[in-house]
Every structure is written in structure tokens, then in C-alpha cells.
Amino acid sequence: MLIPTFRMKLISLALVLCFLAQTVYMSPRASADGLAAAAAGEGLTLVSNRQSESAVIWWSKASESEAAAFAAEEIQSYVMQITRTEIPVYEGSVTSKGVALLNHMDSALLIVSGEEADALVSGNGPIDIPAEWLASANASLADAADDSFAAETQQNRMVLAGVNERGTLYSAYELLESAGVEFFAPAFDYYEGNAEYVPSSGTLTVPDMNGLSEPSFEFRRKYVEEGWSHTAENLPQLIDWMAKNKLNTLVVPYDYIAQGNTRWDDWREELIDDLEKRGMIVEVGGHGFESFLTREKYGAAHPEWFVSGYNVFNIANEEAVDTYVNEVVAYLKARPEIGIFDSWPPDVATWPPAVLAKFGTSANAYAYVVNKLHAAVKEQLPGVRIEAIAYATHVNPPSAEYQYDESVLIDFAPYFRSYRDSVFSPANQSVINQINSWKDKFEGTFTMYEYYRRYAFHSLPVVFPQLIGQELPYYKQFGMDGIGTYSEPGDWITFEITHIILAKMSWNADLNAQELIQDYIQSRYGAAADEMEEYFRLVEEAGRSIYNSPTGDMNNATRVTEMRTKYLQAKEQLESALTKTADGSKESYMAERLLWNIEFAIADVSVDYYRLLGDNASMAASRAQAQNVMNAHRFDGIILQNSYLIREYISGYGNTNWIYDMYRGELKHAPMISTMGTYQSNHLSHIVDDKNDTVFWSNAAPLVGDYIGIDLQTVQNVKQIKLLMSKPDKPNDYIRNGVIEVSKDFEEWETVATLSSQPEADLTVEEGTEARYVRIRSTAAQSQWVIIREFAVEAEELEEPRDELQSTIEADRNEVTAGENVELTAGFKQIPASVYALEMTLDYDANVLEFVSAQSIKSGLALVDSASSAGKLRIIAASEGAGHALEGDLQLVRLSFKAKDVTDDTTSTVTISHAALGNDLGVEVGALPASVDIAVHSIPVGIPADINKDGKVSVGDLGFVAAHYGKTSASPDWAQIKHADLDKNKVIDLPDLAAVASAIIEQ
User: Fold this and answer.
1) What's the distance, CA 900 to chain centroid?
2) Do 45 and 53 meet the contact criterion of CB atoms below 8 Å apart?
3) pLDDT tens profile 108-132
């Protein structure tokens, strides 16, 4: 197996020496100083001091495939993000004779460094790749499973090759992870840039990679399924994350349960390019014989095909089956991107008596249909596979005469399993018996449709990292061929740990789950890792305790009390975690949102807690609190508003199809879930549809505090509020006494009008009123129900505060030893259009730093002059013509300084004290100053690696460094141990161990 992703822990001199002498394998999260190799000469340098030292060459057998080229571009993109330096990408070619020898790979990447890179890219056209460079990787891929990849480091180059195009792309992401990049979550908009971690360094050396990596499961899926919060905008973000975590199959309904809300055709045009360039398998279908054989189309001519009271068509009628098959084949022919079609009966399938009489069981009838479809597709669309689901009425295998063709995929859905217990425990013996029955009778592809994230959890933090760690190795050992679970974006943050751990172990089920979980928590939450580890322990235990069935053990007072207690304890852990994270950091972003979610969870479980105690007042208060949190945070990635959640709080919630429109931005405003239920089909979206003849109509009279309102989704300047209640034939159905209120945060509300016996209001709001939420709240009980015809708000987006032009300056490192060089980069943020010249003056302490050189790092920008004297440096640069205008956020100049010989440790601040830009009209624009601190350490007297000061460097010194390995300047004993931080980067890490080991060897 490929080994570059485990966390290296050195516990002895022997391991250190082995490390120095052999190939370097680095952790996914690189060391704080950035990614430099631990010892000179180890690894492959891609960028040095923000200068490209490498090139990426891609090659593919398939000229039409985009995956290999995309893989190379991904490496280029992330190297740019890490180093702010572009490394070139080239297409490669292999002779036809060489291609014939490369019979186990479809494509490859070559990363070449140093002089070899210069030599290879000096010509024009595709780069000639000697086939022998790829021969060893090709041999490694012999008999490898689909999606496998091989890596090999050869002197100044690295070969990354996939048995197929996906494998090559996965190898690129493996390389980036070895460089410290973390792909935590899809880059959904609400993550606000916190979905990934990308380190920053002026030098990038990646560790050597050697070996073969193969997936534990052939199919690694994400299901769109009901798709409440999936959109054309966030599905590409999901696909991107899937590829980065080596998931290979996106499953989208043809038309989820024939409702017209979640359909492949609504998104296919937007998604095909993103899927194809990642080589992703497209799987379409799902619940819905009725989607292809519809009563509307065929009922009049063939009433015998449909049996009243049953949702499965009359499979006993051969013509009906053939028509279903023909409809599906025609659909697939028109959509060549589909690789797998899911032929499933309706959800909660009911089978006509004639069908059961003919076939004996629903499983037999189902298999008959699927096998007929499979035969037709095999003949007309070779390469497309058919999938059937083992679920509910057809969870058991059919009898031998109806058994599925072995080319059919079977997806096993253990809907009724307990998550209180592992799948291999006695409590789930029925599940294992069913799997064994399938394994005995069916030798084809058999995958797991797991409910590790299910809708019935209604956004409670029911996460299963530990359970997944126990079960994935078991599923692999059991011979399962795939695994997948739901992928709703709406509450991804709540379930992020479930998604990432499942993805990692879907690729490699042999990973040490405990280390994987701890590694994720440490990487994601940093200084708050201890609190977050306890938080995840508490919420997993709470969720597993309750969910021994699909809807949970919510009538068990002991279990509910335990869940509530653990959620309260989890809240304390999150509050403590926030005290350890910096404001505005990725860590605080995540902890804050999980805190919002746990507040929702506490209120939610308190509804059942007080219900079981018979405390109706506290139950009502908890229900209101849960709804408040939901309304405030349903667009923040922690709560998914859907029917599963609404039914927890409202008796009679009506048609919820409008929620799909809300998440997809198709409503004028987002209605807030009312604390009153809905009468018949008079649902909430009618208050924002600009139609007077459609209404929201409650199914009960309002109590004091009940409200109805809308969410503008951003804070805006509110101008006008128009509220139309009641209707002519129900003139008294309105909130008789209430207030219209506005709020920015759902916590502090401002009253803008008081209503008494007033069914309509048209308000001009006071100038300067800013709000996101607008509602009418009842202030007195009444007997009449409530009708709202329209709730309209006229508002304007707040003007974005215009950022002032800001100069910027950064250092490749903030600490150096006397005699060493430090590289600074200077530039600007928010450069306006049509800028062609710049001037800046920098101040620094000439007793500490010596100016060495300056150069432009922006193509087309020439350094006209630089002058330094007495701690002041002046830089003037100009663009080389109209095609090289400056705009946006740019780093423009690299400055090199040398640390002078100082007697004591000291710090020099380098400040851009004056900066200005000139545009095409001759106008000068000044910029705000910027500065960076550089700590300069004096050269230590004596032997630097002599940690214990006994006059020599020995294993005793190494033992001291190893004992304090991993400690940082934040450690309580730092003052006593910091002399072991030989490179002064404020952490005792691998380079410090390597320096002591090298000194031992050199003596």
C-alpha cells in the first residue's frame, strides 16, 4: 500500500537515522514552517523561495479524456495557493511502441524538478516521455483494482500513474495531501472559505512517494436521494469534494418518487463537464417504476396495468413490463453519460395480488422486471449496468428461478438496523442473516446503502465516526463491493466528521480509525482538539443510544434523559473550545456553528424530555426555542429544513414541496416556519408568491408568541412592509392583536408597528432600519385561525463597505538566525482598474537587517528602480504596456534581506510606510501601510545541538528532544525546553530531531 499519509512519530534514534537515510514519508498536515523536507536532499522541490523549480507533465492514452490534464491543473492550482508561484504544466507524449508496453495504466503525471525540468520543457509541443520512466509504475498496476494508482520517486522526478483516469486524478490529490492540504468538506458557500486547509510557504518540497494504493471498495457513493438542499450551484462543489476524497459515484434520482422536485434532467447540463473531467460514475434512477410507467400516460388506454390501491404496476402483465423496459432504454439512450441505472420500485412499495399470485413473492416479481431490463440494456447499451435495491418488501433475495443476472448490481439497504449496536452485534443479527442469504445465492456486485446520515436524524448531531471505524473493516472483510450514504448540503457541517471519516475509510478500510479520527479533530480544531474530541464522543454516544430504530427510542425516558444530558455536556465542551480558538479562524468558525446546532439539539430533545415528564409548558417553550434556532440557522450548514424536521414541532404541516424552491432560490423570500400548523394545502410559500388568491391558512388559532414571517437571508435596508391577512369569506381569520417586528440576528427584535383589529398593513419603515428577519407575532390569544394572503417586504441590499487600497507584506518565515536570508513579498489588496505603476517606501532596522535585492514577481511589471540607505528602501515599478494593467489582490515584488550578526535575540519590523499606485489617467492613489515582524536570533555559543550542555552531541540530547516532540511555544513548560527548538520555529518537530541526529553522525 502507498504510505505517504500516516502521521510519523519518531521514538528512537534508530528511526531518526532510518528517516535520514531513506525515503521521506510526510504527514498530510505538514510542519509549521511549511513543507520543507526534513533533511537536505530528501523529497522533490517544486518551488524554492517563490521560484518555480519544477514542471508537471500529463499524459493519457485517451485523447478525449480530460482527467489527466485536470489532475495536472489541480496540482498547479494548489501549488499556486501554497506558494503564490506558478509551476508550468505541459502535455506529454509516449511513442506508440512505448504505449503498447504500458498495458496496465491509462494515464500518468510526471513531476520533474531541477535541471531535468529545464531540459524537458525547453522544446515546443508535447514533451517526449521515455516509456521506461513509466515502466515500473505500470508493472505495479498489474492486476490492480479500478481506481488504483502507483507512485514512484526517481531522482529528480516523481511518477503518478492510474490504472484508469480516476486513479491518476486521485494520485494528484494524494500528493497535495502529502504537501499539507486538507479537503475537509465541499466548498459550499456557507463555509465562507473554511472547507479546506491550504498551508502557506515560499518553498514547497513534497515527500517522496512510492508504492501502490488500491481502494477497499469498488463503488464509493454519495446519494442525492430526496435532494432537499441540492442545487445546480452546490452539486459541482459536492462533486469536487468527492473526487478529492476518492469517491467515484454520484447517485441522482431520475425523479425522486415522481414528485418533480429532484430530477437528474434538471441538473445534467450543469454537471456533465464537472463529472467527466473527474471521471466520475453517473448513477441515475431510484424509487420510481411509476416515473416511467405513468397512469397519466398509459392509464386510459391500459387500465389493466394499474391496480387501485397499489403503487407497483401490474407486473403480471407482460405488455406493461415491456413498456416499462422500453421507456427506460429510450431514456438511457438519450443520456449517454449514465453508467448505472437504478431500477427501484416505489418507496413503501405495495404489490398487487395478481403479481404476488404469479411470482410468489415481491422479491421474485422485482427481480423479473430488473432482469428483463438488464437483458435489453445489455443488448442495446453495452457498458451500462442496472442496479436493484434490497430493501423493505424485497430485502431478501429472490428464489433461484428468478435470481438476478450476476452483472446486475445489488444495493443492500438495512433500513431497520440499530445504530445503538454495531452491524455485527447480536442486535443486528437479522441484517447479517440477510446479507449471508444474499452472499450464498448471488455472486455479483453487492454494495451497502448505509444510513450513517439519515433524514430521520432531523439535523441532530447524530454522528458515527467510531461506529464507521468499527464497521468499514468488517464490511470489507465480509466482501462488500461498495458503500454510500446521503449527501444533503443543508446540514453538512453537522455531519462533516461522518462524511470525511466514511470517505477516507471507503478508500482504505484498513486505516487505524482511532488515529484517523484524532488526526481529523487535531487538524480541524487545533488548540481546541481536546474539547472537540470530547464533544464528538458525547454526541456519538447520545445518538447511538437513541437510534436503535429508524425513528429513535424517543418514548424511552431513560434514553431521552441521557441524550439531553450528553447534549448539555457537549455544549459545555463547545463553549470551552471557542475560548481556545482565535476569532475569525477556521477552528472558531466550525466550533461556533456546532454550538448553534447543539443549542437546537438541546431544545429539540427537550421537547420529548418534557413530554415524558408531563410538563406541557416547558415542552411548548422547548418547541418554540427549537423552531427559533431552525429559522435562524437553516442556511448556515447545520440544520436542514424539511418535512422530517417540521413534523417534530407542528401538527399538520401541509405540502412541503415549497422547501425545495426555497433552497434553490426560487422564492421571492424564504418563509419562516410558522409556530402554527397548515390547513390542507394552504402552505407557507403562498405568503411570498405575489398572488392574492393563494393563502397560508393555519390549522389552529395562535397562542401568545406564535409568529409568521420571512427571512431575507441577508441583512438589508428595509423600506416597506405590506401584510395582507384574512380573505372575503373568512374576514375574521387574522392575528387580531400583534406586532410587526424586525431583527438582524433572530435574538434582538425591534417593533415597527402594533396591530389591533387590523387585517391589513402597509408600512413605510423608518429610514435606516436594517434587518434580515421580518415577522408578525401574536400578543394575545384568540379563537380564530389565521390567513395570510401576502407578506411582502421591499428592501435594498446594504452597500458593501468599500475597502481602501491596502499595501501588503509577508515573510516566508518570521524567525531567522544571524547570517540567514529572509524573503519578503510586497503588494496590494483591492487594486482598482487600469493601474500601471507603483511606488513604495519601506522602513526597517538597519542594525538588524541588511537589504540584499529586489525583483518583480509579476509578469509584465518591470522594476524601474530600487534604492536603500539608512534603513529605508524605495521601490518604483511600472507595467510594460497596456496589456499588463494591475487589478485586484496582487503580490508584486520580492525583497531579500540578510539578518545581521546580533549579540542578543531581537526583532525588526519591516514597514511599508508609504505606497501609491498610478493609473492610466495620471491619477495617484495612496494605500494604507502594512508591516511584518522578523525575529533575528543570535548565533548560539558552543555546539548548537548540545541540548544538555555536556560538551558533546549524543543520544542523551536526542532523547531530550524526542521527549518533548510536538510541543510548541504555547506549551506551559516552553521556557524550560525551547532550547531544543533548534530552527526557532516555535515547535519542537522533525527538523530538530534530524539536526541532532545529523550532529551525532558527523562527530
Assistant:
1) 46
2) yes
3) 999 999 887 777 766 666 889 999 9
The helix (H) or strand (E) run that includes residue 571 is: helix 557-579
Which 3-state string (H, E, C) describes 851-893? EEEEEECCCCEEEEEEEEECCEEEEEEEECCHHHCEEEEEEEE
Task: Using the structure block, give the residue that is written with the C-alpha cell 405513468.
Answer: 294
Residue 802: pLDDT band (50, 70, 90) is low
Determine the Cα–Cα distance for residues 254 and 107; give it in Å rounded to an integer: 32
Q: How far from 153 is each of 56, 75, 110, 158, 160, CA to CA, in Å?
A: 14, 17, 10, 4, 9
In the predicted model, what is the mean pLDDT of residues 303-317?
96
Q: DSSP for 112-134, please give it.
A: EETHHHHHHTTSSSSEE--HHHH
Round to whole Å and give the CA distance between 48 and 33: 13
Most confident region among 18-27, 60-69, 613-622, 987-996 by mean pLDDT: 613-622
| The predicted structure's pLDDT at residue 41 | 40
CA dihedral of 150, 484, 182, 108, whole degrees rounded to 10: 20
Q: Which amino acid appears at position 473 of this protein? A: P
Regarding predicted confidence, which is higher, 590 or 202? 590
Question: 628, 616, 799, 783: which is closest to 702 by C-alpha?
Answer: 783
Top-confidence residue, 962 or 571? 571
Location of C-alpha cell 463597505: 801
pLDDT in tens, 381-436: 999 999 999 999 999 999 999 999 999 999 999 999 999 999 999 999 999 999 99
Task: Evaluate whether 172 touches 277 at the Cβ level (below 8 Å).
Answer: no
List pLDDT tens digits, range 501-517: 999 999 999 999 999 99
Dihedral pair phi/psi, residue 527, rounded to 5°: -65, -20
Contact indicator for 627, 649 with CB cutoff of 8 Å? yes
CA–CA dist 135, 193 (Å, integer): 41
- Secondary structure element (H or E) that encloses residue 773, with its range: strand 770-778
Q: What string of DSSP letters covers 234-286?
A: THHHHHHHHHHTT--EEEEESSGGGSSSS-GGGTHHHHHHHHHTTTPEEEEEE
Residues 6 or more apart whose Cβ sits within 8 Å of residue 821:
852, 896, 897, 898, 899
